[in-house]
Amino acid sequence: MDVWASGEIYESYVGRWSRQVAKEFVSWLDQPAGLRWLDVGCGTGALTSTILSTANPSAVVGVDLSAGFIDYARLTVQDERATFEVRGADDLPDGPFDVVVAGIMLNFVPDRIGALRRMREIGRTVGTYLWDYADRMELMKYFWDAALDLRPQDSEHDEGARFPFCNREGLQGLFTEAGFAAVETRAIVVPTVFSSFEEYWKPFLGGQGVAPAYLLSLEQDAQDALRDEVQRRLPVEEDGSIHLVARAWVARATS
């Protein structure tokens, strides 16, 4: 049911929040200038553009399975140091790379351990971050808590249940199983503020990502009921704004 095709729509849904995490993530990696980076699952270019603007790399190669996302990244990332290719995590380019990173994508890779092992083979430093779906990725958690109260039979779609390893211990375990000896992890929390419920809800209608694709798979009456239930649960300020947070878990290791 997952849909990844329109970079512009995905950007309005969650890509913009990933960009906030990317800034702190790249700063935390603390890599010297002039390095060659590989961005695995680069999506709309959120992490690639942050690397270019803050890490002073010699080159960044971004790869993603979605041709639509790659088209969006090529259009919006105007830097001669960046190149983009349509590739999956099971078909990474040959290294060596100084730094290999993956933002908000490892959970969608069937063979996560194999992907991390390949990243270790071709990269000196490897880093990744994932949303804390089961706890403090609040814009999604409010949606899924409401959805499953209304339709408990659909629990297999919940990202918190699908990706139980998206936490400190889970990331540590994945990196260790992939052969990394010393792994550092931490949390990054960013605010996700919406001026109104309409601003919060509109990206879910675009169909890009797990929750929006699930929403559009429902009959209209069920969509309306879910919308009303989410709106009832969200914390709304007196001015109509909604102040949530998004937590990502990050990990880094040296091969």
Report on the architecture of this protein.
It is a single chain. The chain is an alpha/beta fold. The chain has one domain: Rossmann fold (3-Layer(aba) Sandwich). It is 42% helix and 22% strand. It has ten helices and seven strands. It has helices at residues 7-29, 46-54, 67-76, 112-122, 138-150, 159-162, 168-177, 197-201, 210-217, 220-233; strands at 36-40, 59-64, 82-86, 97-103, 123-131, 183-194, 242-254. It has a seven-stranded mixed beta sheet, with helices on both faces. Helix 4 links the parallel strand 4 (97-103) and strand 5 (123-131). Helix 1 (7-29) runs parallel beside helix 2 and helix 5 crosses helix 10. The longest helix is centred in the N-terminal third of the chain and has 23 residues, at 7-29. The chain starts with 6 loop residues before the first helix and ends with a strand. 42% of the residues are buried. The model is unreliable at 1-7 (pLDDT under 50).
